[in-house]
Amino acid sequence: MIKVGILGAAGYTGGELLRLLLAHPFVSEVAAYSRSQAGKQVREIHDDLHDLELVFQAADQIWSTRLDVLFLALGHGESKKWISENRDRVLALTQEGSFKLIDLTQDFRVVEEDLRAQNPEFPFIYGLPEVNREQIRSASFVANPGCFATALQLSLLPFRQYITDDVQITGITGSTGAGQNPVPTTHYSWRSENVQPYKVLTHQHLHEVRHTLGWTASTDPKIHFTPWRGPFSRGILVSAYLKWQGSQAEAMALASEFFASHPFVQVQDSPVHLRQVVGTNVTLISLTVEEGCLVVHTALDNLLKGASGQAVQNMNLMTGLDETSGLRLKTVR
């Protein structure tokens, strides 16, 4: 059995981790840490956990419990700072061989080789199981992918070797992707019956997508990505447009073969939609081919396969469990 802790447990991804880990068949203890809500009952913040007797502990209490896995569900930039401040303690635990750390921020998702050489103490592995499963199994440090990055990578990976021209992608996401702290564009009155493009062609997840595909910004195909804010709380749906000389059946066969050994990615004949995936760790993909254009439609839950569910998937791999443990979730229709 595994003892786990969540630093940043009061946020959206922290709450999802709590819900998953409290029901996980191989987790014996869950500790919730928060720098803003320490001393409060968890149910005061996550009121759907109304019968849970659990108190948010202060961050410095992490070291009073012998944890097997620690999740960092902090704001971007905060994980790097926290690890720097706790360097000696983190290293001491990982050198003993049992302590694992999974970071849900963007701080360690793309570690260039020169930076890795300068700082070999924290060799973070990029936590996309569909690419790095075997590396994740033996890792002590995993950087969980971004939500849009997961959707874009799973859209493009089966066809990577056939892509020679620039790629056009559009995508829409729910308001939880912006985090729990309210901003003008997350209010219900703004989101309801409204759609808006944002970070057009400049989304921060593009760097990790190019890194996984092995593309450089100057010489390889460019990714032109327009994300949209959608009038719903959770879920991501993207459509990637690729030049394609084959048939739809050939594209289906290629994608199906690529994901055959990956339990949380499914390729289907019918169009995907968000209600099929929200509340699950599943990514659904459908394909359309018409007049030399292949469109890859990909749907996932940004808080699960795009964040906390994928983090638990990585925990399972890192601790020798079945990859799907605690993640056989069913959507609510």
What's the SSE blueprint?
Layout: E1 2-7, H1 12-22, E2 27-33, H2 42-45, E3 69-72, H3 78-85, H4 87-95, E4 100-103, H5 113-118, E5 125-126, H6 129-137, E6 141-143, H7 147-156, E7 167-173, H8 188-191, E8 196-197, H9 206-213, E9 223-229, E10 236-243, H10 248-258, E11 265-267, E12 283-290, E13 293-300, H11 308-318
Parallel strand pairs: 1-2, 1-3, 3-4, 4-6, 5-6, 7-9, 11-12
Antiparallel strand pairs: 7-10, 8-9, 10-13, 12-13
Helix pairs in contact: 1-11, 6-11, 7-9
Q: Count of DSSP E strands? A: 13
- Please state the oligomeric state of the protein chains shown: single chain
Q: Characterize the biggest β-sheet.
A: 7 strands, mixed
Helix percent reads 25-40%
Description of the structure:
By secondary structure, the protein is an alpha/beta fold. Helix content is 27%, strand content 21%. The chain contains eleven helices and 13 strands. The chain has helices at residues 12-22, 42-45, 78-85, 87-95, 113-118, 129-137, 147-156, 188-191, 206-213, 248-258, 308-318; strands spanning 2-7, 27-33, 69-72, 100-103, 125-126, 141-143, 167-173, 196-197, 223-229, 236-243, 265-267, 283-290, 293-300. The protein is globular, with a radius of gyration of 20 Å. The two termini are 33 Å apart.
